[in-house]
Amino acid sequence: MVAMTKLKITLTQTIPAHSRLTATVVGVEGSAKTPKISSNNLDAKLMAGINLSSLGVSNEMGVIKKVAGPGSSVIALVGLGLKSDLDSIRGAVGAAARELGALEHVVLDVPLAGKAQLQAALEGFQLGNYEYLAYKSKAEKRKLSKLTVITSLKLSAKELAEIETLTAAVHRTRDMVNAPANDLYPEVMVASAKKLAKGLPIKIQVWEEKELLAQGLGGIYAVGKGSNRPPRLVKLEYKPVRAKTSLAMVGKGITFDTGGLSLKPAESMVGMKYDMTGAASVLQALIAIAELKLPIRATAWLCLAENMPSGGATRPNDVIKIRNGKTVEVLNTDAEGRLVLADGLSMACEQNPDYLVDVATLTGAATIALGNRYAGLMGDGKAIKKVQTAASQTGELVWHMPLPEELRPLLNSDIADIANVKIGNRAGGMLIAGLFLREFVGSESGSKPHWAHLDIAGPANNDASAYGHTPKGATGVTVRTLVQLAKDLC
Question: Which of 97, 203, 231, 331 could bridge across to 128 with cysteines, CB 3.0–4.6 Å?
């Protein structure tokens, strides 16, 4: 893990002294054709002398132009966009944090109307203040260590600490997902989970190879048995005394995905270290929930395996048995995420949670359908609405997708209860994966939790340019939504 420099945050109405290691962030608003500098506390004559047109300054959200400021400082003109919603503030301020990491002190002097906007600005700045340099031998680390916000608004120490907790969880997720597969594999994730939980009221249980077999966890075992780095199932449980509602989170944790014997093309393997994002996300969400002492019973299930081809790997046409007793004919070993999740969902349901959410970089079809910034959201009505509400509060993008009953027969198998794919039919791939997972939601008693499935194949990794508070590489998507969901359920 890469520890980010902890920011010293000051809220004040007084502009601090300028220096060569200081940047003052000022907003740019107005229309695209006539941008204007938003109200600020800098010298009026100085600001009047800045010609926005000749500098090519834009009001587009997150676009930054730097100019010389007083005392050899920097003035960073950042576009605030056409909206003044919370996520635009997060994005604009986050972009400033990304761009100004070489300086020690950033002064934020943009209009903030109310506590919610101030919190959004601080959250966006913290999210944007990130980089991953663990494997760069000569990289210059970020110097940014102090943020001063010019405002009359106030936040309590508890409110500031909550923002720090949330953004730190996102940073840890990014660190974990960015790590290469030769250094991060199931055993390492187990060790990381134990280290994170130390000192918190969290119980951990780990199922190793023999226990996976003994407990009927055939999906996780089948996916991981081709690797010399064996699979694991990890359960982290946070159970405060006053909790009235329970939330189970299940994460796909394929630490590297070659496709198994259904081998991916070489170019398609690049980036497959990200296939454990779901497990990293639910782990860090659970840690944050415990750190925030939320009054909800929460569990995180990490379904960990490395999907490799070998003489011991699962073959196409093999039949495996999942924890809930259903048999699966494996027609494509590259549709492995649903197999490990089937065990995780089955185990979670045995504890009869009120709500169940699984998170996975599950299908390429999700990216084809929704692009690189939206997560596909499937499940039942009540859970869907809860996740949509949480996502809207955090500014994370989800899109409700259907689970069409007419597609379910495509998963019929001649010899098993269900097949993991329909060979030769690519229609509705994201939806078919959701239908497969639905088969493993519920318990022997007949009770079913309210269930939501998040396919984050698109937004988990940003392989384009950084934008807003989102860096290039691992994004840490869904962590804040999961924590917000837990809050909403308390």
Answer: 97
* CA distances in angstroms from 374 to 114, 205, 366, 456, listed in the order given: 29, 33, 9, 8
**pLDDT tens, position by position, 316-375:** 999 999 999 999 999 999 999 999 999 999 999 999 999 999 999 999 999 999 999 999
480 labelled catalytic = no
**Contact present, 483 and 285 (Cβ < 8 Å):** yes
The architecture in CATH of the region 8-155 reads: 3-Layer(aba) Sandwich (3.40)
Helix (H, G, I), strand (E, B) or coil at 377: strand
Strand order in the sheet with 327-330: 318-321, 327-330, 418-419
- Torsion on CA atoms 56, 58, 64, 68, rounded to nearest 10: 50
Amino acid at 385: K
Locate tokens 């300028």: which residue? 18
Fold of 166-489: Aminopeptidase (3.40.630)
Cα separation of 490 and 482, whole Å?
A: 13
Active-site residue (options: 98, 338, 438, 480):
338
Q: Given 194, 264, 373, 448, which residue is catalytic? A: 264
Locate the domains of the chain by residue range: 8-155, 166-489
Known catalytic residue at 338? yes
pLDDT per position as a tens digit, 366-390: 999 999 999 999 999 999 999 999 9
